[in-house]
């Protein structure tokens, strides 16, 4: 097959973002398929361009790069503008690229525009990959308030589902949400994944002197409102109040709240902020942590999320503490590989941190459970094949 993949955030392990599309398409290319990814320039990616439209090839994956920059630090309106610019120029590729299957990976939901164009005007089979439930997520978080735009977004979402031959949801929770609202949709769940070999590599000494021989919990990713990063600051403060400054919290990433939290934390010795780093470098920090933190706000939409840090932590044999009450909570309980705590009460989080810091046998047991489950269910090659199987079924269907 020749697959055209519209996705704005493409990165490789040299970047500081999720590598799902890279890992999956690399596997498909190795199986003999042709893949063209139409992408843009994301601040956390290692993909750059010197011209407005640039062609590159990475590990057999052909890239069409539209040089419009996306950054989580941008205002909501600025990000909407970049999404629309990408979609506008992607329409050219929707009309001109030869392909058997067209995949549009949302969010943002505007990436569905070139997918629909290829489907409607060129009769291409359309696969709609749902990473975030748009527009429910932005509406729930109070970011998208305009009622007219909300109605337009819901109508466009419905159109994407109606025109798609296959919907790929990134979690069982998303899959169920879509089926509840659009029961006729052909939808499968293919979660985010982990490079099991990479995250199973031997643990090495941490390069940062202030973290050597320290017990630390780790958070990786965007430091912002959605990610409830303030909770980690309050937890670090509480640990000091309880004379447990031996337990450290490390945040690796960037985002709108990072500088403000760093400023507030200047007098606190047990919280550390590190800059974005390539995934290959990040692995050792994750493996040296005694627990991984995923403190998302507990909203219905975020309860359906599929955060990369979950799968990578489990692959690294690291237990997880998280704060959503959906499919992740059920999975952690079933596998005994982590805990779920309140998204607003730092006391709950602190109790679990102290418990794990003081019980290495529990950490080892939970970490082992996490690794085995990740190996059996979240391996990148396994999930790349699962998605490819769904695409091939659609391709063969008349």
Automatic annotation (TrEMBL):
Residues in Glycosyltransferase subfamily 4-like N-terminal domain copies = 19-187
Q: State the organism named in the record.
A: Aureibaculum algae
Residue spans crossing the bilayer: 76-95, 101-121
Is Transmembrane helix set as a keyword in this record? yes
Q: Do you know which Gene3D superfamilies this protein is assigned to?
A: Glycogen Phosphorylase B (3.40.50.2000)
Transmembrane helix: is it a keyword of this entry?
A: yes
Name-wise, this protein is Glycosyltransferase family 4 protein
Tell me the Pfam families matching this sequence.
Glyco_trans_1_4, Glyco_transf_4
Task: Enumerate the Gene Ontology biological process terms.
Answer: lipopolysaccharide biosynthetic process
């Amino acid at each position: 097959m020749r697959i055209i993949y519209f996705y704005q955030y493409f990165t490789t392990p040299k970047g500081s973002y999720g590598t799902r599309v890279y890992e999956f398409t690399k596997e498909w290319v190795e199986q003999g398929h042709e893949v063209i990814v139409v992408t843009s320039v994301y601040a956390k990616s290692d993909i750059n361009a010197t011209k407005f439209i640039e062609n590159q090839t990475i590990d057999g994956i052909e890239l069409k790069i539209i040089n419009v920059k996306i950054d989580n630090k941008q205002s909501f309106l600025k990000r909407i503008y970049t999404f629309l610019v990408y979609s506008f120029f992607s329409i050219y590729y929707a009309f001109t690229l030869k392909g058997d299957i067209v995949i549009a990976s949302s969010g943002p939901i505007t990436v569905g525009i070139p997918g629909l164009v290829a489907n409607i005007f060129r009769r291409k089979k359309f696969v709609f990959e749902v990473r975030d439930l748009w527009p429910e997520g932005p509406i729930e978080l109070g970011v998208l308030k305009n009622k007219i735009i909300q109605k337009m977004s819901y109508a466009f979402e419905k159109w994407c589902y109606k025109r798609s031959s296959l919907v790929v949801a990134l979690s069982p929770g998303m899959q169920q949400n879509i089926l509840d609202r659009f029961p006729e949709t052909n939808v499968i769940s293919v979660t985010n994944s982990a490079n099991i070999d990479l995250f199973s590599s031997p643990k090495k000494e941490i390069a940062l002197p202030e973290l050597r021989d320290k017990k630390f919990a780790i958070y990786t990713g965007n430091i912002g409102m959605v990610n409830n990063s303030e909770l980690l600051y309050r937890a670090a403060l509480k640990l000091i109040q309880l004379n447990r400054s031996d337990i450290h919290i490390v945040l690796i990433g960037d985002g709108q709240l990072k500088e403000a939290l760093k400023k507030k934390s200047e007098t606190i010795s047990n919280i550390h902020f590190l800059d974005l780093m390539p995934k290959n470098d990040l692995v050792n920090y994750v493996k040296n942590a005694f627990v991984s933190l995923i403190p998302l706000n507990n909203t219905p939409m975020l309860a359906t999320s599929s955060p990369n840090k979950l799968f990578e932590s489990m692959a690294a044999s690291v237990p997880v503490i998280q704060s959503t009450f959906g499919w992740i909570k059920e999975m952690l309980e079933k596998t005994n590989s982590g805990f779920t705590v309140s998204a607003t009460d730092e006391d709950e989080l602190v109790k679990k941190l102290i418990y794990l810091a003081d019980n290495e046998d529990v950490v080892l047991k939970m970490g082992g459970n996490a690794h085995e489950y990740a190996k059996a269910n979240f391996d990148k090659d396994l999930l790349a094949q699962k998605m490819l199987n769904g695409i091939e079924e659609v391709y063969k269907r008349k």
